[in-house]
Write a structure and sequence with these properties.
The complex is a heterodimer.
Chain A (H helix, E strand, L loop, with lengths): L3 E5 L8 H12 L3 E4 L6 H11 L3 E6 L4 H14 L6 E6 L6 H7 L3 E4 L4 H26 L1
Parallel strand pairs in A: 1-2, 1-3, 3-4, 4-5
Chain B lengths: L3 H15 L5 H10 L10 E6 L6 H14 L4 E7 L8 E3 L14 E7 L11 H10 L4 E5 L16 E6 L6 H5 L9 E4 L7 H14 L6 E3 L8 H10 L8 H26 L1 H11 L5 H12 L7
Parallel strand pairs in B: 1-5, 1-6, 2-4, 2-5, 6-7, 7-8
The chains are: A alpha/beta, B alpha/beta.
Chain lengths: 142, 306
């Protein structure tokens, strides 16, 4: 089954060229990409991710607000009892913040130099690591 | 009562059915076991179809707003195309339906059309039945942007709104078969653009010459003009048994058979055994017809073209 990814841009940052390039690249890699558009709140992101039942939430942040946005996303996922969606991020994120984000449960951070191929490989890897559990849990629930 | 938990559980069973992990019956049983109430009566299913870029998603956004104001819970299944080459898809219908994220009475699900060719995804009908079982009052199905012959929405929706825009063609377009035959309501969207009156008049002539009374409305989805009239027209059709019911069943059976056949054919084509067939075709050693014959033989069972 295809990997389903939410590609989203939170906050006030109005530049989504990169997010669209990512969406297109993931599409060409055979993934089903739900694109939310700009100016998403954590509430909107988590609502979309839950309704779409995506494997991965990919958050693109260039504005520097990542230490506000990511904790809120992780908190809302916990609140809604969703434990089977992987959160990853990309954009302009300082090296020093990466361990802090990982401690919050953000699985992977791709910096601005990452190629689309690295992103595709990274998503396939985290879904293989985490997603197989997800399919097993889905089967167990049914 | 729709809760966040309904959203999560419904989303998960839709995925399970969409990915062939469980059959529909099992998914319905799962929802029931999770204690989700079925809607008090059958859900009303509204189909929204029309060409790409006609404003279907924006119109759906407006319909959600109106239905919510009337106290109805709404689930939306929005289909966008899958690549026939990579199977990937970009699903962008949500972009136009942003305002409802904080409203638990609204559930929006995007679906890639996968191998299906009729404007819907293989699992769209199942998703509608699951949303109904989860307790939603109204279910809106938005097709991919369609041309003239992607009509499978007929098998799913109680009421079909065909959305068109001004100046897509002259009056001959309105008497062509296909899309114009399945409308319960026509909405000429972007009605502030030149040619809207003429398009509406041509559709009205076509309707008048036909057998049914079909409203032809003008809407501007971006500012909400005409939405109240559209909602009233949809409301007037609620519970009305359509002449489509019989052929809808036939459509649905045909669709499922074709989807399965297409799926099986794609699987065979991707198999190592079929690699030689495509190689010989590319080397001009066999014709396309030969390749299809070989493919069908590999599928097993007699499959005839006619």
């Amino acid at each position: 089954m295809p990997i389903k990814v939410l590609v989203t841009k939170p906050g006030l940052d109005g530049h989504d060229r990169g997010a669209k390039i990512v969406a297109r690249a993931l599409r060409d890699a055979g993934m089903e990409v739900v694109y939310t558009g700009l100016h998403q709140t954590p509430e909107m992101i988590v609502t979309a991710a839950v309704q779409e039942d995506v494997d991965v939430i990919g958050v693109s942040i260039l504005s520097g607000a990542h230490m506000t946005i990511f904790p809120k996303i992780m908190e809302l996922l916990r609140e809604r009892e969703v434990d089977d969606i992987v959160v990853i991020g990309g954009g302009v994120i300082q090296e020093a913040d990466v361990p802090k984000l990982q401690a919050l449960g953000v699985r992977e951070i791709f910096n601005a130099e990452a190629t689309t191929q690295q992103l595709i490989d990274g998503i396939e890897r985290v879904v293989a690591e985490f997603g197989r559990d997800r399919a097993r849990r889905a089967a167990a629930r049914s | 009562m729709i809760s966040q938990r309904v959203h999560r559980d419904l989303a998960r069973v839709i995925s399970a059915v969409e990915n062939g992990i469980v059959p529909l019956a099992t998914a319905l049983a799962t929802l029931a076991a999770q204690g989700h109430d079925r809607a008090a009566s059958r859900a009303d299913v509204i189909g929204i179809t029309g060409p790409p870029g006609a404003g279907k998603s924006t119109l759906v956004d407006r319909l959600i707003e109106g239905l919510r104001n009337a106290g109805e819970s709404v689930a939306v299944i929005a289909v966008d195309p899958s690549s026939p080459f990579t199977h990937g898809a970009v699903l962008g219908d949500r972009v136009r339906m942003q305002r409802h994220a904080g409203d638990v009475g609204v559930f929006i699900r995007s679906m890639a059309s996968r191998q299906a060719g009729g404007g819907l995804a293989p699992a769209t009908h199942d998703a509608v039945l699951l949303a109904e079982a989860a307790g939603f009052d109204v279910i809106i199905v938005e097709t991919v942007g369609v041309g003239q012959v992607e009509l499978e929405i007929v098998a799913v929706a109680d009421c079909i709104v065909v959305v068109t825009v001004p100046a897509l063609g002259d009056s001959v377009q309105t008497i062509k078969a296909g899309l114009t035959e399945i409308a319960d309501i026509f909405a000429v969207n972007m009605a502030d653009r030149p040619g809207a009156n003429r398009t509406a008049v041509e559709l009205k002539h076509m309707v008048h010459e036909g057998r049914r009374e079909i409203p032809v409305l003008q809407t501007i989805a971006t500012d909400g003009t005409g939405i109240a009239e559209l909602l009233a027209a949809i409301e007037a059709r609620r519970g009305v048994q359509t002449a489509n019911a019989g052929r809808a069943v036939r459509f649905e059976v045909l669709r499922r058979a074709r989807d399965r056949a297409a799926h099986a054919a794609a699987a065979v084509l991707d198999s190592p055994e079929a690699a030689g067939v495509l190689a010989r075709l590319n080397a001009h050693q066999i014709t396309r017809n030969d390749a299809v014959d070989t493919l069908l033989a590999m599928l097993g069972g007699p499959v005839h073209a006619h």
